[in-house]
């Protein structure tokens, strides 16, 4: 008796479920409204997320696109106005000086550190772009740090060359002599175009670095609240992500 009840209950549940399922999916037949048709539910496959093409697969520094903006205004500072072309040409000339000073092929510094001390103006951009053009890693120095702090950062980062923008040459040049490092002086920001006079490489040569993503771009030092400042290395891809 118990077996019969279980069999009946199972059969009844199957019929109820199928009847309920059919009511959910049935629809009027498109040709005859009096007829009903059963539309079986379509089993959907699990969605697979895809990754959209990203422009950050091989990120390129901003200077590689500067000439596309030509004479458009890029920076206005205390010295005047600077176009993208002016910044690019000045950076190219400085990069040529950096490579010559370090006896390197253009773009061949292979991540060697270049520390620079600049004001909050166009000279900072030129120093940074020139470092990247020459294949180096930029180490920006803070103009309000005492000489002892600057010396620590320059030594800790294993800097190969110093760049001193006007008017910080007087402070940085003695430090460069103490550490035995070459030091290049930048002209006043209003005269950055004088860097263009240096024999610069051709357009093909200035783009010798093709894969920028994992290239070291910048070392930024922490504030050092719990100890001596520590250098944090950023790649070009991490900078573009920020």
Automatic annotation (TrEMBL):
InterPro entries: AMP-binding_CS (IPR020845), AMP-dep_synth/lig_dom (IPR000873), ANL_N_sf (IPR042099)
Protein name: AMP-dependent synthetase/ligase domain-containing protein
Keywords, in A-Z order: Lipid metabolism
Homology family: Belongs to the ATP-dependent AMP-binding enzyme family.
Domain of life according to the entry: Eukaryota
Lipid metabolism as UniProt keyword: yes
Domain AMP-dependent synthetase/ligase: 65-241
């Amino acid at each position: 008796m118990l077996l019969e009840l279980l069999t009946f209950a199972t059969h009844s549940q199957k019929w109820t479920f199928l009847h309920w399922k059919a009511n959910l999916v049935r629809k009027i037949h498109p040709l005859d409204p009096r007829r009903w048709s059963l539309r079986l539910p379509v089993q959907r496959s699990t969605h697979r997320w895809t990754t959209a093409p990203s422009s950050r697969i091989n990120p390129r520094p901003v200077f590689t696109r500067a000439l596309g903006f030509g004479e458009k205004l890029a920076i206005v500072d205390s010295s005047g106005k600077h176009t993208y072309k002016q910044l690019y040409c000045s950076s190219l000339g400085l990069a040529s000086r950096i490579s010559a000073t370090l006896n390197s092929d253009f773009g061949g510094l292979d991540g060697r550190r270049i520390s620079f001390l600049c004001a909050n103006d166009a000279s900072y951009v030129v120093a940074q772009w020139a470092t990247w053009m020459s294949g180096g890693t930029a180490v920006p120095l803070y103009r309000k740090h005492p000489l002892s702090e600057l010396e620590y950062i320059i030594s800790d980062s294993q800097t190969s060359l110093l760049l001193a923008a006007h008017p910080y040459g007087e402070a940085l040049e003695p430090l460069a002599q103490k550490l035995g490092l070459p030091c290049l002086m930048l002209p006043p920001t209003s005269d950055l175009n004088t860097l263009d006079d240096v024999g610069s490489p051709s357009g093909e040569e200035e783009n010798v670095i093709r894969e920028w993503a994992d290239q070291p771009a910048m070392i930024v030092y922490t504030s050092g609240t719990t100890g001596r400042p520590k250098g944090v290395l950023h790649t070009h891809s991490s900078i573009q992500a920020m």
